[in-house]
Every structure is written in structure tokens, then in C-alpha cells.
Amino acid sequence: MTISAGALGTIVVIATSIATIAPILLITLFIRDWKRGRLW
Amino acid sequence: MIIAEDVAILPEGIAWGLLIAFSILWVFLGWFLGRKNKTAEDHMLAGRNVGLALATATAMATWVTANTTMTAPQLALQLGVWGMFGYSLGALGLILFAPLARRIRELMPHGFTSGDFIRLRFGKFTWRVFLVVSLIYAFGWLVSLAMAGGVLINALSGIDYRVGMTIILAVCVLYTLLGGLRAVIGTDFVQTIIIILGVAFIAWLTIDKVGFEAIHFNLMEERPELLNLLFPAAIMFLFNNLLFGVGEIFHSNVWWSRAFAFGRSVGFRAYLLAGLLWLPIPIVAGFVALATPALGINVPVADMVGPLVAAEVLGLTGAIVVFIVVFAALASSLDSLLAATSDLVTRDIYRGHIRKSASQHEQFRATKVIVVLLGLLTWAAASYRGELPIIGSLAAVLYFTGAFVASAIWPVVAGLYWRRANPTGAALSMIAGTTLGLVSYFVIGFYVAALVGAAVSLAVLVLFTWVAPRDFDWRSLAEAEPRDTAGARGGIR
């Protein structure tokens, strides 16, 4: 039983999309913590 | 295996430029962030009030190692789609540690190391067994990270393996020495952003330039087993890796020191979010290896496949991006491991066994000496890559430690949640689990060591506790530390 090209592509695209969004989320959290004085 | 200079993809001048520029950046950041450290708690635990953004990033960065960016492609090449899916299950370690981090902070508000917990919870014999397991794992991980650094630099630029490995190790030792955990966490944030953006960039361009249809077609022609969803060794690897990841995180002081360092309500959310964001990284990093048949790349050594594919698809840009990403990934993990292991050695070996009356000031100085010694030991072991029977490839080193860490999962979980857990059973479960896990590593394969270690450990612990349950008062974990904390406040200035 082999994985299809479509299934492989879907999984990889979803994973890559999450990885692309992650830095944006982290920077947003950083700015929020910084404004609240809660970085450290 | 060393790649000759004539097949190197990155010109040596550019490689040296990147090495020098990023070395200066990390050391400067380490010094800058750590310059306000006033106490041992500042140095070892960053003041115990780290916020959500930095906490999430440091958990992610530490778990995204050079092993993730280089071993995930290697495993995809060897075990196919299950190789990269299995590696991504390592995220469960972070996710499952989230409730443990909260409980650790509640039970031990003044704790410093995982060793502190095991000593107070199970007594000295179990503590010593735990220290052996934990230190062997930490050293194995350190060596595999240093090896990854040397391999990357050699593969991309032709710079000698030992020279590259030495530079990366020296830089990490220097800035960890200067700034302690505050420097480690601060640099981790920058490194996380670089790593994720770089990995995603390479994946998007590989998708764009090669395409899934071409990748799938060529794999079916040349390596159809890599697309097989019923690949037995790969499925075994999947479960093994899950337990390996859980074992690594549950027992290691790298993660415990962060649980102590994060703000009171931050630990749970930070580990959960870090796990969810880490989950796709091995798939993104590993997938590029599946493009090798479509690209017609000849891979001389499996652990070099990631950089080779990136350089083939993106040329000089790819080589530069991979170089920066892996340098950041290496630094983010090496610094964490150096800091956490030096804390463990300082608190549990130096103060616990050698100089029990050591003041906080003496411990602070000892931590710095131990960071340097750890760096030297790691350098010596990594220098002999391929010349010792076990130290052969990145994956081999990494999974050799699987038997050790998986055998520590249940003693840690039982220690935190099972009031009647038997202390002797906890020690013997680690000994038996590690022993049989290592036997399975050599007799069956690297992909079952953690599986066997965890299963045997669970059986021994449950059996001993069933036969001879021991009661425990959780409050003693919190009561035992204030004496030390009072010393910390009055000591180092």
C-alpha cells in the first residue's frame, strides 16, 4: 500500500504552511509580552 | 566520511564569512542578554519568570536541532514517508510535557534540576542511576550535535570536518559561559525564527521546482518502498521515535530547567504551543530527501542528503540558507544542552557528591568551569567520528541513547503523579530498561531500542510498586528546597 502523490502533497503543503505561519505567531507573542513587560 | 573540496557547493570564502558573522552575532547576543545576571538563579534559571513568547521559542528551538534538519531527511531517505512522519511524532514529547511542566513548577517552586527531583522523590540510589542515564544521554546528544556541525560545514564548503566542528562548539561554549540561561533563551528566539523561515523557504522552492508528481513518479520507479505505508521497519521506527522523544524530554534537565525558569502560568501553554508548532518541521525538512531520485542526486552519505538537495535545487542560495539554518539549529540546541548539563553536573555531582558545603558563589563558578570541560570532552569525542564503532552517523549516535532515555519515562511520570511508586523499583526499572534496550539496539536494530527500554521499564516499576508500594508526601518536595534557596539569595552577588 503506497501513499499517493496527492496525499503526500497535501500533507507536505499543510506542514509547510504551518511552518510559514509559526514565525509570525512567535513575533506577535513577543511584541505582546514586550508591551506588557512580561518578556522575562 | 569527508566530502572533498571539489564537490563542495559553498565557496570556502563565503562559508568562512558566514561562520565569522554568525559567531560574532551569537556571542554578542549572549553577552548582551546575560550582562544583567546578578545571582545564580539569574544565570541558571533566567530569573524564573520567562514569558510565553520566549518560552515557546526556546522550547521549539531546542527541539529543532541539527538532528531535525539533517536526520529527518536522512530518515526519509532510509525509511520513506514513515521516517519523516515518525520523526515529527517527537512533538508529542513537548505536548505531553506541558502538564508535567505545570506540576513540576507547583511541586518544586524553588527547584533547580531534574536531579533535585529524583533525589528528593526516590532517594540517593535512584538519583545516582538517574544521573548515569541522564549524563550518558546528554553527552550522546552533545556529540551528535557537534558531529552535525562538522558534517554540515564540510559538506557545504569543504572546510575540514574537525575545524568546522571546533568553531561551532567553541562559539556555543563561549556565549553560554557569558550569559547562562538568559542568553540561551534570548538567542533561541532569534534562532527559531531563522530556522523555521529557512526550512519553509527550501521546502516551498523544492515543491515549486520539482513538484509532487515528479517526486512520486521517480520514487515509484527507483525506491517504491519509501512510499510504502506498511514498511515494517518504518512503522516500528514510528513508535520507537515517539517513545524516544518522550523519554528525552521527560527526563532531561534541558526541559526541567525550563519548567523551573518559565513564569508560573507559562510552562503549560509554552510547551503545548511549541509542540504544535514543532510537529510539521520534520515533515518539511525531511520531505526534500524524497526528491533525490527526481533530481538524480547521488548521496554519498545518508546524513548529508538535506544540504545536498537544497544546494541542488537552489544553488548557492540554497547552500547559504542551509548553512545558516543548521548553524542556528546547532547553536540553539548546543547552548541549551551545555547550560542544562553544566547545571546538572554542578548541582548533582559537584554539590551533591564532591563538595556538599559549596556556597552558591562556588557553584556559580563551578558551572562555568564545567561548561568549558563539557565542551572539551564533546570536542574530543566528536573528533573521532567514524573511527569508533558506535560513533558512525548522526542517527546512530542519537538512537543509541534511546534505550537510556526511554527507560526513564515511567520513573519520572510515576514520581510526579503516583504517590505509592516504589523508589527501588524506579531505579531497577531504569537499569533493566536500559540494559535490554541496548541489547535490542545491537541485536535487532536502532529503531527498537527505545521501544524495548520503555516497555521493560514500565513492567519493572509496576511490578515493584504492586508488590511493595511506598507512601510519599508531595509537600516534602517543596519543603526541602528553601534551605538552598536562602543560600542562593545570600550567596552569589
Features:
heterodimer; A: 40 residues; mainly alpha; B: 493 residues; Sodium/glucose cotransporter; 24 helices; 0% strand; globular; disordered N terminus; disordered C terminus
Walk me through this protein's architecture.
The complex is a heterodimer of chains A (40) and B (493). In chain A, 80% of the residues lie in helices and 0% in strands. Chain A is built from 1 helix and no strands. Chain A has one helix at residues 5-36. Chain B has 493 residues and is mostly helical. Chain B has a single domain (5-387), classed as Sodium/glucose cotransporter (Up-down Bundle), CATH 1.20.1730.10. Chain B is 78% helix and 0% strand. Chain B has helices spanning 12-34, 40-45, 52-63, 66-79, 81-88, 91-107, 114-122, 124-157, 161-209, 212-222, 232-251, 253-261, 267-278, 281-287, 292-295, 305-354, 360-382, 394-400, 402-406, 409-417, 423-443, 449-467, 475-479, 482-490. Chain B is globular and about 60 Å long. Chain A binds chain B through residues 1-6, 8-9, 11-16, 18-20, 22-23, 25-27, 29-30, 32-34, 38-40, and chain B through 46-47, 49-54, 56-57, 60, 81, 88, 182, 189, 192-193, 196-197, 199-200, 203-204, 207, 212-213, 215-217, 220, 224, 227-230, 263, 277, 279-281, 283-284, 287, 290.
Query: Could you state the oligomeric state of the chains shown?
Result: heterodimer
CATH architecture of chain B: Up-down Bundle
CATH topology of chain B: Sodium/glucose cotransporter
Strand tally of chain B is: 0
What would you call the structural class of chain A? mainly alpha
